């Protein structure tokens, strides 16, 4: 029986080229899977500098948008994410990610740009559909429990490398910094 | 001299397995490495490219000629690049990314590395280890822990003997 020899390139790729290739990956899912390849790949992929570079590249990609908004349905306590693009909200739900939430840790990685938020009973959670990571936090202390959150949104602040959540209630708004894990309340 | 007579200047490139290739200077200078040699006046005779084999160099020259024949139209250039890379297997792409890096051709480098990333997208960890010549340096416990952390990322992976 003939043994089929596996073809290999003339030489294996040096690590600096591997890093260039990994940065080109549009799939965060693949990147997270490749953390298992070996320790040095894991170190690279988890490196905050790599994550920042990857984020920067995906911002330039036409497939990505750096703002997601979500609404939640009171009746089911489920929420959907909506794509925000060219100043218009596209009602394209990416709800299929949501069922993962229960199973994943409350760790949030600033990777890729797809992030959603839901506000339920004064508790909020930020979800990163690219990594399936979810982070929970309490609502702004200055909002009374009975106050209705009229609207909310999330954005990435490239200057401080931070995701920020904005909640509106009546004439007030509050900003949550995911890096500092704290609220800033703003008057009208 | 050639410029005076109006005929395009031709360069001769030599691969590391001693194959010779003629290529129009206007196409060859897509490579910054070659352009620097031309500007420094050391492109008179044969230009040896010690890090590129004949098969890969032939492919790179096809690309140089193809892309430089397209007028400044980024859309058309992109679709040429996509088509040019569409039928290349991983080994060819790996050789090309090394050549593009050595020749300092950023447009080819970008396109090939993106293509490799795309090829890898649905591949298993085992496939990646084989193709990149990587030895698994995790202990079984560590490996299980890393896999557990991102379990969902192992869904929808192409079947392979080692996921």
Automatic annotation (TrEMBL), chain A:
Pfam families in UniProt: F-box
Leader peptide range in chain numbering: none
Domain F-box, first and last residues per copy: 13-54
Superkingdom per UniProt: Eukaryota
Name assigned to this protein: F-box domain-containing protein
UniProtKB/TrEMBL annotation, chain B:
Name recorded for this polypeptide: SKP1-like protein
Annotated PANTHER family: SKP1
Function: Involved in ubiquitination and subsequent proteasomal degradation of target proteins. Together with CUL1, RBX1 and a F-box protein, it forms a SCF E3 ubiquitin ligase complex. The functional specificity of this complex depends on the type of F-box protein. In the SCF complex, it serves as an adapter that links the F-box protein to CUL1.
Keyword field contains Protein biosynthesis: no
One GO BP annotation of this record: jasmonic acid mediated signaling pathway
Known partners and oligomeric status: Part of a SCF (SKP1-cullin-F-box) protein ligase complex.
Pathway, per record: Protein modification; protein ubiquitination
The keyword Heme is annotated on this UniProt entry: no
Organism whose genome encodes this protein: Erythranthe guttata (Yellow monkey flower)
Keywords: Ubl conjugation pathway
Domain SKP1 component POZ: 11-65
């Amino acid at each position: 029986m003939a043994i089929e020899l596996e073809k290999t390139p003339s030489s294996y790729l040096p690590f600096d080229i591997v890093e260039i290739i990994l940065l080109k990956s549009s799939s965060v899912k693949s990147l997270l899977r490749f953390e298992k390849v070996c320790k040095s790949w894991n170190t690279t992929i988890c490196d905050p500098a790599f994550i920042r570079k990857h984020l920067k590249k995906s911002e330039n990609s036409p497939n990505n948008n750096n703002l997601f908004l979500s609404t939640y349905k009171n009746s089911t306590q489920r929420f959907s994410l909506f794509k925000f693009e060219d100043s218009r909200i596209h009602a394209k739900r990416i709800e299929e990610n949501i069922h993962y939430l229960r199973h994943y840790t409350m760790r949030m990685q600033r990777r890729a740009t797809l992030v959603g938020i839901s506000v339920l009973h004064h508790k909020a959670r930020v979800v990163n559909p690219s990594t399936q990571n979810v982070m929970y936090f309490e609502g702004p202390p200055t909002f009374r429990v009975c106050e209705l959150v009229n609207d909310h949104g999330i954005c990435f602040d490239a200057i401080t490398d931070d995701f920020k959540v904005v909640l509106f209630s009546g004439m007030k708004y509050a900003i949550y910094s995911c890096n500092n894990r704290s609220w800033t309340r703003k008057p009208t | 001299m050639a410029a005076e007579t109006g005929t395009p200047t031709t360069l001769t490139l030599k691969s590391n397995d001693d194959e010779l290739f003629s290529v129009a200077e206007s196409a060859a200078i897509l490579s910054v490495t070659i352009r620097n040699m031309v500007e420094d006046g050391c492109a008179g005779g044969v230009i040896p490219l010690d890090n590129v084999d004949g098969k890969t160099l032939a492919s790179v020259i096809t690309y140089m000629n193809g892309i430089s024949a397209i007028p400044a139209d980024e859309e058309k250039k992109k679709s040429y690049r996509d088509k040019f890379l569409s039928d290349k297997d991983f080994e060819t792409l790996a050789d090309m990314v090394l050549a593009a890096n050595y020749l300092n051709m950023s447009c080819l480098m970008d396109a090939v590395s993106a293509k490799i990333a795309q090829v890898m997208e649905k591949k298993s960890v085992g496939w990646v280890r084989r193709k990149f010549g990587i030895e698994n340096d995790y202990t079984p416990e560590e490996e299980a822990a890393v896999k557990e952390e991102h379990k969902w990322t192992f869904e929808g992976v192409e079947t392979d003997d080692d996921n």
